[in-house]
Backbone:
């Protein structure tokens, strides 16, 4: 469920007409619903309530949408944070998410990042290799601190999703193979400055079946047993994220959070570990839309070209991994047409969809790309010297600009002009 609804013939976000936001801010612009985010956070927390030993932690995957206002909203709603860079760590702390509710994931942590996060505090480093563990050991020893860690395990389970958002097969860069886990834990236990207490897994994003997740969790449970028999105390199990979100009619319907929670309780019943979860898309995906305006409609060889003012630099997901976004008119007339929807960027890849039947619109009309709250604005860039997309957060009848449009002049101002007098 989301809070984008037709009222009086026009699409609203909660109590605010999208037409009003477009008039005030311009297009393209991302629009987020506070009520939707908070509801999704509550549903996820309720779904995993009672799982594992002790209170489970739902740590929002900051990479999905790191906007400061979004993080503050989700932190206030009770979520922790899963971060993959020191920048995300700083954003989470700035949003007043407690250090003991933050996990630091990511395959390429630097010594500097490790040092800052260790000094600032966190629940756990999710370590991706024994080489990383050795570096963290040196950092922690130099600070006279102990770094809590859990190894990320690669269970070699296919997630059944797009190859570019699959992370748990043998040829992915993430984690250590399950077959090498006992050796890695054995070495890490002997390294100074490390508190080896956890284990983690994450096999991919936008999963529409629980089967791959259950298979991965079962393998993790077997490994927990083997590690304990080897003498390791495993008290924390991070089950990652990846549960898909609904995209609308004709698209695969993912399992509900409640069904996911039921499966987790059954599979982990004997683990005796605190459980962590890292949802991102599930929380914010359907809480946001990209609002854009039709520049013109151009005749095509087969279907007309609907050219909008949002480009692949604003919403990269279709170009990156053929992502589907439902497209709707802000003021639908009831008429439908089949079109190709494209942006103004000078790339053939700047194509959102081909041959899509959708609401019939004309030049100047507003449309939205649905399910754009995750991996939308955070992936935006300034290709073709286009401004960075602004973001708006709606709360009931109120709304605020929570990221301004960063224009071409502002982007040019950060460039170094030393080339005017180059050294010989």
Residues:
């Amino acid at each position: 469920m989301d809070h984008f609804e037709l009222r009086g013939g026009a699409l609203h976000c909660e109590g605010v007409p999208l037409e009003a936001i477009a008039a005030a801010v311009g297009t393209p612009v991302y629009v987020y619903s506070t009520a939707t985010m908070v509801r999704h956070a509550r549903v996820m927390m309720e779904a995993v309530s009672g799982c594992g030993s002790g209170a489970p932690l739902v740590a929002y995957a900051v990479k999905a949408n790191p906007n400061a206002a979004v993080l503050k909203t989700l932190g206030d709603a009770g979520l922790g944070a899963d971060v993959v860079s020191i920048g995300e760590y700083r954003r989470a702390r700035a949003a007043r998410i407690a250090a003991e509710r933050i996990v630091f994931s990511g395959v390429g942590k630097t010594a500097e990042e490790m040092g800052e996060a260790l000094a600032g505090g966190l629940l756990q480093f999710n370590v991706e290799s024994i080489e990383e563990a050795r570096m963290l050991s040196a950092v922690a020893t130099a600070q006279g601190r102990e770094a809590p860690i859990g190894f990320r395990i690669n269970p070699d389970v296919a997630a059944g999703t797009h190859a570019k958002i699959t992370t748990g097969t043998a040829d992915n860069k993430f984690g250590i193979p399950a077959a090498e886990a006992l050796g890695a834990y054995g070495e890490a236990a002997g390294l100074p400055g490390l508190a080896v207490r956890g284990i983690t897994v994450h096999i991919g994003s936008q999963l529409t079946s629980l089967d791959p997740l259950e298979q991965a969790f079962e393998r993790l449970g077997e490994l927990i047993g083997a590690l304990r028999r080897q003498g390791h105390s495993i008290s924390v199990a991070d089950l990652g994220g990846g549960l898909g979100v609904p995209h609308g009619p004709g698209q695969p319907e993912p399992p509900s959070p409640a069904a996911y929670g039921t499966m987790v309780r059954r599979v982990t019943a004997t683990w005796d570990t605190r459980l962590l979860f890292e949802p991102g898309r599930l929380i914010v995906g359907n809480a946001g839309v990209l609002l854009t305006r039709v520049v013109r409609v151009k005749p095509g060889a087969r279907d007309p070209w609907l050219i909008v003012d949002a480009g692949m630099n604003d919403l990269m997901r279709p170009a990156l991994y053929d992502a589907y976004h439902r497209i709707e008119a802000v003021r639908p007339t009831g008429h439908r047409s089949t079109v190709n929807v494209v942006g103004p960027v000078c790339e053939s890849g700047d194509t959102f969809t081909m041959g899509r039947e959708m609401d019939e619109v004309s030049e100047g009309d507003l449309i939205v790309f649905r399910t754009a709250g995750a991996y939308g604005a955070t992936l935006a860039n300034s290709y073709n010297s286009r401004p960075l997309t602004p973001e708006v957060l709606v709360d009931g009848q109120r709304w605020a600009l929570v990221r301004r449009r960063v224009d071409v002049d502002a982007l040019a101002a950060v460039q170094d002009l030393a080339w005017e007098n180059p050294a010989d």
About this structure: Residues 211-229 form the longest helix (19 residues). The radius of gyration is 23 Å.
